[in-house]
Design goal:
The protein is α+β, with helices and mostly antiparallel strands. 36% of the residues lie in helices and 13% in strands. The protein has helices spanning 9-24, 34-40, 42-52, 57-66, 71-82, 160-164, 194-202, 206-217, 286-298, 315-321, 324-332, 339-358, and strands at 100-105, 225-239, 248-264, 273-282. Helix 3 (42-52) packs across helix 5 (71-82) and helix 8 (206-217) packs across helix 9 (286-298).
Length: 359
């Protein structure tokens, strides 16, 4: 039971003033602008957009500034704003094969079809503090010329040749190609189809998925993963207006896609082959896309006749608890007054102690 706090209006206003002062910090330090957050903290902005389930870098940066850099709180603010927006229509499925890739790597090909595009990544840097950044940053090195993929043809899918050989499972629609459920409108009814699971993981807390994905590699999920194709870049967003019978491009968004391969020794219905796990998230979020792909494959155990023995394979465990906004709210509500509830349990403990003492 929650009890309203009376007579605390002045204290609450003082708390809000202190919050605003904490957000501003030392007035002698230049104020952080929203566009600075959006431009200079793109990985954090991408995470907030993914977990807030709304693609808008400016609003995600605003939410981060308002939340004092708390990514979970920023996702909460963005998700709350999202609920106020009207739904104007449905876009066509985005074509990640036509992505203008800023980065595209694979860990399984020495000679990757289309070539490796290293792009912006910390993978090739030393994990050492750069003290030059304390003094405004080092001089930018000359930037390389953009790769031909920025304006040329899309990079080929690295796995197509193996699919043609029957060595990798094809990526095909489910039987009957049903419309995917909308997890924002339809209450979950387990077991969920893969399309709904992927939706829920796309906006799940990154840390949760990372821990589960790591667990699958340590033996809790029956995955033996290889990074087949990881790409980050811009994809076109298209929709078909009511007055037209063909799609038009209305903009583009940045996405990170990961296809993870896992060895499968075969079953009575399926031959030995590599199976796939899939991850797709807003912005540049390779770690989350990879973790999502690992957990996706773990939850496909029933499709391949595998025993479900680990938490990462259980939909009811992975998906509801993965929502960082829900989890944050449920944990933080414990800060609200619970006077009556605690008093009743206190009386119960006293009665039990009295009974034990009499016995």
């Amino acid at each position: 039971m929650y009890i309203a706090v009376k007579g605390g209006a002045q204290a609450i206003e003082a708390s809000r003033a202190l919050l605003a002062a904490a957000r501003r910090g030392d007035p002698a330090v230049p104020e952080l602008a929203v566009d600075q957050v959006a431009q200079q903290l793109p990985l954090l902005v991408g995470r907030v957009m993914a977990e807030g389930s709304l693609y808008d870098p400016e609003l995600a940066a605003l939410a981060l500034r308002q939340a004092l850099g708390d990514a979970v709180e920023a996702a909460f603010l963005l998700r709350a704003y999202r609920t106020t927006l009207p739904r104007l229509g449905f876009t066509e499925p985005v074509d990640t094969a036509a992505m203008r890739a800023q980065r595209r790597v694979s860990a399984i090909f020495k000679d990757l079809p289309g070539g490796q595009v290293l792009g912006p990544s910390v993978d090739y840097t030393q994990r050492l503090l750069d003290f030059d950044l304390l003094h405004g940053g080092a001089t930018l090195p000359p930037l390389p010329q953009p790769p031909a993929t920025d304006d040329g043809p899309a990079l080929p899918n690295a796995l197509d040749a193996l699919v043609d050989e029957g060595l990798v499972e094809p990526a095909t629609p489910s039987a009957g190609d049903p419309l995917p459920p909308d997890i924002t409108r339809d209450p979950p009814a387990y077991p969920l189809p893969r399309s709904a699971r992927l939706q829920m993981m796309a906006r799940a807390d990154e840390g949760w998925l990372l821990g589960l994905g790591y667990g699958t590699q340590r033996g809790y999920g029956n995955t033996h993963p290889f990074a087949g194709d990881i790409r980050f870049g811009a994809v076109a967003v298209e929709l078909v207006p009511d007055e037209l019978d063909f799609p038009i491009e209305v903009g583009e968004i940045e996405l990170t896609e990961c296809q993870m391969l896992n060895q499968f020794v075969g079953s009575a219905e399926l031959p030995p082959q590599f199976t796939r796990g899939y991850g797709l998230v807003f912005g540049h979020g390779e770690r989350k896309a990879m973790a999502m792909a690992l957990v996706d494959r773990a939850m496909r155990a029933d499709e391949f006749g595998e025993l479900r023995t680990s938490p990462a394979q259980a939909q009811e465990f992975v998906l509801p608890q993965g929502d960082g906004v829900e989890a944050s709210g449920f944990v933080q509500h414990l800060k609200l007054p619970h006077y009556v509830t605690f008093e009743s349990e206190l009386q119960l403990i006293r009665a039990l102690r009295a009974q034990a003492g009499a016995a």
